[in-house]
Amino acid sequence: MTQLPFYRLPYGARRDQLAQLAHLTVSQLATIAARRQNGDDQLIENYLTTYGLPEGVAVNLRVDGHEVVVPMVTEEPSVIAAASNGGRLLNSREGIVTTVDRREVMGQIVFNHVADSTGLEAWLQAKQEEILNVANAAHPSLVTKHGGGARSIRVRRLPPHWVSLDIFIDVGEAMGANLVNTLCEAVADYIKAHLKVDVLMSILSNYATHSLVTARIAVPVTQLATKTVDGATVAEKICEASDYAQVDPYRAVTHNKGIMNGIDAVVIATGNDWRAVESGVHAFASQSGQYRGLSRWWLGEQGTELHGELTVPLALGVVGGATRVFPLVAINQQLAGQPTATELMGIVAAVGLAQNVAALRALVTEGIQRGHMHLQVKSLALSVGATTTELPAVVARLQAIKQPTMAQAQAALTAVRQENLRK
Ligand SMILES: CC(C)(COP(=O)([O-])OP(=O)([O-])OC[C@H]1O[C@@H](n2cnc3c(N)ncnc32)[C@H](O)[C@@H]1OP(=O)([O-])[O-])[C@@H](O)C(=O)NCCC(=O)NCCSC(=O)C[C@@](C)(O)CC(=O)[O-]
Ligand SMILES: NC(=O)C1=CN([C@@H]2O[C@H](COP(=O)(O)OP(=O)(O)OC[C@H]3O[C@@H](n4cnc5c(N)ncnc54)[C@H](OP(=O)(O)O)[C@@H]3O)[C@@H](O)[C@H]2O)C=CC1
């Protein structure tokens, strides 16, 4: 009998093969079994179990005049505290103000080995109307039900022999990847039926330069004061840190990682495609030819106000994709006040800005470790096996140590267990 390919095996047979291969113990198999979720096996391939991440909410955020509770999914301690802290630091009557000028996703049809790129470009430009009609006919409800549709085209010639036909598509309230791919493949078929061309591929671009969102804030510098450093000094140093992230890519990447701490967490909580967001955002950070910090902080003319701004490409949706697959996404949308896709872009950018100011303020004053490690010790204690009942006592011991190590965490747990035995 021929052996079935792995993906055709029933769940139990696949699990047993893995257990044998990786020498999984009975208790590890019980962990895998306990985390299985009905329906998740239909979402991905070769399903084994469901890997859960913690979800919390950031508070104190005011965006476009409204208080917003922001659901965040992250495994990293201090991220949600920092977002809430940033919201508090950036508190103002209107809060963080966001703008989205355009919300379109670009699809591209790439032609290969083009001998006459001038001729091809002229043909594509002349056929603009037909191309847009063919695209819209490929998924009519996008136009008729959701108010979207293909809007414009652009042709780019890329040496030595490629031409890209870019189609800009209003994807309604969706993220739009599947929609755009469907429309582009239909256009590619139409072109191939009329011209002898070699189409290399038809696919959306995740470089979402036509779905940019900007978050802006201005707050009195006094709001940035810490217990030991006055607000003007903190604000000035935040601006220096922001300027530095424009000139040193080594710093810019970390600066942006801090921003993405917030952005990714909301993107995941709202069922959006974080790989798409990550790749687009980092490409945008490199648009000048050098990787730079995404946010800018500067002092107002009198030096009494700190201004901040963050622009990021965010192709997000509130329908489609995974948004209806996970029940928690609907709950999270409700927690966030049922935002439209455009409003969600604003909320996510605002969290990125708040996250950034909290991290920069900590960095330029007391350093990141006190606030972060204070919250990180819980995760350190859990990582050495502390149970939730043992956690408070282990954490109390670790908080007395400046930079607790894994060995110290293990020793603290052993001490707590011995103490408990004596009780
Ligand atoms: C960690 C804090 C917030 C402590 O901040 P703090 O000033 O020591 O604490 P606080 O007690 O004064 O609290 C200030 C606010 O923080 C929030 N807060 C405070 N504690 C909690 C908590 N337990 N649970 C929930 N929220 C909390 C809360 O909103 C609170 O205000 P309140 O509501 O009390 O008026 C601060 O030090 C901070 O914002 N640090 C930045 C931490 C950070 O960015 N963490 C991400 C991981 S580090 C990283 O990956 C990025 C980085 C840093 O490399 C990026 C970069 O380099 O740019
Ligand atoms: N490179 C990438 O980023 C790629 C990403 N993906 C994945 O694609 C998925 C996202 O694609 P997307 O096209 O959004 O997903 P879907 O195809 O799941 O969702 C779009 C559908 O939602 C329906 N819809 C309902 N209401 C609206 C509305 N108001 N506006 C627009 N559409 C509406 C439409 O169906 P109807 O017209 O029938 O009502 C539309 O076809 C994600 O899962 C992503 O991970 C896939 C390929 C590549």
UniProtKB/TrEMBL annotation:
Belongs to the HMG-CoA reductase family. Its EC number is 1.1.1.88. It is an enzyme of class 1 (oxidoreductase). This is 3-hydroxy-3-methylglutaryl coenzyme A reductase. Pfam families: HMG-CoA_red. It catalyses: (R)-mevalonate + 2 NAD(+) + CoA = (3S)-3-hydroxy-3-methylglutaryl-CoA + 2 NADH + 2 H(+). Pathway: Metabolic intermediate metabolism; (R)-mevalonate degradation; (S)-3-hydroxy-3-methylglutaryl-CoA from (R)-mevalonate: step 1/1. The keyword Cytoplasm does not apply. Gene3D superfamilies: 1.10.8.660, 3-hydroxy-3-methylglutaryl-coenzyme A Reductase, Chain A, domain 2. One of its GO terms (biological process) is coenzyme A metabolic process. Keywords: NAD, Oxidoreductase. One of its GO terms (molecular function) is hydroxymethylglutaryl-CoA reductase (NADH) activity. It comes from Levilactobacillus paucivorans.
